[in-house]
Specification:
Length: 348
């Protein structure tokens, strides 16, 4: 499989980049730049931005000037906007064969891509397929694969192979099926995700169900978790999915029991406070913290953790590497954890 370089990020290598898409108009330059900088610190690798009109293409150039992350221009309908975005300095272009237009228009975009030596993502959506493929008795999966094949031919005829493909549907099983078939049929990197997945809860569940079997099968070279939620949530969920399937190793992992009738403290609140306290901190090794609701789920079930607590009504057991360290008052849980974690902080 060919690797595709988007500025300084590789798609198709061992590392799987996480993407999101800016949800406000790019013409609000200050807001867009501040979001991009925040998302980059959170772990985003590539940002996509809609370019629906010429004013957006102009604003895109300024956003690129003020940021360092690779930026992808999302183009629909008007091929001329793709050309303007390329000339503005964008690092990749996404086009949709379902609405970009005739072969002549696509060839003009290809010529510009070749001149500026940047890649393209051919993004196939189950809900926006070319009209000429409709009503031919084909399934949605078959139409998506056919649309990709036709579009790829335009690029390959022009001796252009700097391509990433995506096949997205709002249906989980359809997305899994089309990407498995695309992985066999084509030899370009795949950008995977569930489109129109829903809000934070529904969208997270659909993306987990759709991306996990693909990633565990070695399918998918970059991901975007589409959510009707802030961009930050897309990055957080994407990171957690990659961590859960072993494609990323978290700097620090917090595990916690589900709680039951034995639990006498608010475990959820303690977990959230710990996460807030350690957010942004750097450690000199990978760490695992356990927050357990009672002694039943204490050091025994969390013996592989570096340290943690087994919470009681007034006092809790602090344990380190599976062994009891000391009993502490519940109000001191956060302070005590941070103290024993200090030895693992990276020194400035």
């Amino acid at each position: 499989m060919k690797e595709v370089k988007v500025k300084d990020v590789i798609i198709g290598g061992e590392y799987i980049p996480i993407q999101t898409m800016i949800k406000n108009p790019v013409t609000d330059i200050d807001l867009t730049v501040s979001k991009i900088n925040r998302l980059q610190k959170l772990g985003c690798d590539i940002i996509r931005i809609s370019v629906p009109d010429q004013a957006s293409a102009v604003a895109l150039k300024e956003v690129i000037r003020q940021t360092s992350i690779p930026i992808v221009a999302d183009i629909h309908f008007d091929y001329r906007l793709a050309i303007q975005a390329i000339e503005a300095g964008v690092h990749k272009v996404r086009i949709n064969p379902g609405n970009i237009g005739s072969a002549d228009r696509v060839k003009k975009v290809i010529a510009c891509l070749k001149e500026y030596q940047i890649p393209v993502r051919i993004g196939i959506n189950g809900g926006s397929l070319p009209d000429h493929l409709m009503n031919k008795g084909l399934s949605t999966v078959e139409m998506m694969l056919k649309a990709a094949e036709e579009e790829i031919n335009y690029f390959e005829e022009a001796d252009y192979h700097n391509i990433v493909l995506s096949f997205k549907s709002s249906h989980v099983l359809e997305t899994i099926e089309v990407n498995r078939k695309a992985d066999q049929k084509f030899h370009y990197p795949l950008h995977i995700g569930i489109t129109e997945a829903g809000d934070l809860l529904d969208g997270t569940i659909k993306n987990c169900c759709g991306l996990t079997p693909l990633l565990l099968s070695g399918i998918g070279n970059t991901i975007r978790v589409s959510l009707t939620a802030p961009e930050e949530e897309e990055i957080k969920v994407g990171q957690r999915i990659l961590e859960a399937v072993g494609k990323r190793v978290p700097e620090i992992e917090v595990v916690s029991c589900p709680t039951c009738g034995r639990t006498e403290v608010n475990i959820s609140d303690i977990v959230q406070q710990i996460k807030m306290k350690i957010q942004g901190k750097k450690f000199n090794k990978q760490l695992k913290i356990a927050v357990m609701g009672c002694v039943v789920n204490g050091p025994g079930e969390a013996k592989d953790c570096d340290f943690g607590i087994a919470c009681g009504k007034n006092k809790s057991m602090l344990f380190y590497q599976g062994k009891k360290l000391k009993m502490i008052k519940n109000e001191a849980i956060l302070d005590e954890l941070l103290i024993i974690m200090e030895k693992f902080y990276e020194k400035d």
